[in-house]
Amino acid sequence: MDVSFLGGPQPQLGVGVVAPFDFALDRELWRWVPDDVSLHLTRTPFVPVEVSLDLARLVSEHETLDAAVQALCAVSPQVISYACTSGSFVGGVAGERAMCAAMVQAGEVPSLTTSGALIEAVREIGARRIAVVTPYTKSVTDSLEDFLGEAGITVTGRAYLGLTRHIWKVPYRDVVDMARAAVVGDTEALFISCTNLPTYDVIPQLEAELRMPVLSANQVTMWAALRAIGVAAVGPYQALLDPVARRGPAAMNGSEPVDTGPRATPEAAFAGSPAPPEGEVVEGLEPPPYPPEDTGGLPPV
């Protein structure tokens, strides 16, 4: 059968992605990408270091970025994103800007990082006070809070798992439990950190329960990269992507929100343990981290 009249495949826009060597969620990134965009991923070289501030520094060295960006430029992407939260906040705001500059110099292609995309996304939704959830150790979580503080964003509450490996194995239920623990006081949005932590399906459920925008590392990375080339990210009922969702659950049916008490849980909310009663948490209270695990050591749900 002669198919020459079809003229070949449709042109594709390209997004280059530099990820750490242990990144395991390629498919999650693709879920935010429309059909006319291709992702081109490459990984940083393996280093025998567990997830820590040291690892974050190693995978974000400019020499490492230069090599990865040059490899990606072989397929002519329109933008390049560095998909690692800790690797892009470990050097502070100045370090994140220097990373972007180094990538642009290496490939002469517009470039961004996950942490830079986070700041852009927080400003997009008009938030200044956010809760933070991470799979990291305390020291890495502290570094994220310092980075946000430099950018003028206040962390109102936080929860973390204390993991040093196998972060991609964390189930959604543990992410939900951390979110409930972290969202205290006058919080305007929630950020779920780490590009190796699964988040795609849990975002709309948490937004419905917590009644606030929920951002994740992979979500903001794809949102910013696609926006840089004039394309909208796709995703069901996510406040960052959908102006209707940004106005809250009640906007979907045209009614005004009804005050049903703090942290009321609609029927559509993610199943799991109930939110703690009012009065049992204190603003800024940091729950103790769960112990690190190898396999099977996650906290009970």
Automatic annotation (TrEMBL):
Q: Which Pfam families match?
A: Amdase
The UniProt annotation puts the region (Disordered) at: 250-301
Can you tell which superkingdom this protein's organism belongs to? Answer: Bacteria
Q: What is this protein called?
A: Asp/Glu/hydantoin racemase
Q: What is the lineage of its organism?
A: Bacteria, Bacillati, Actinomycetota, Actinomycetes, Kitasatosporales
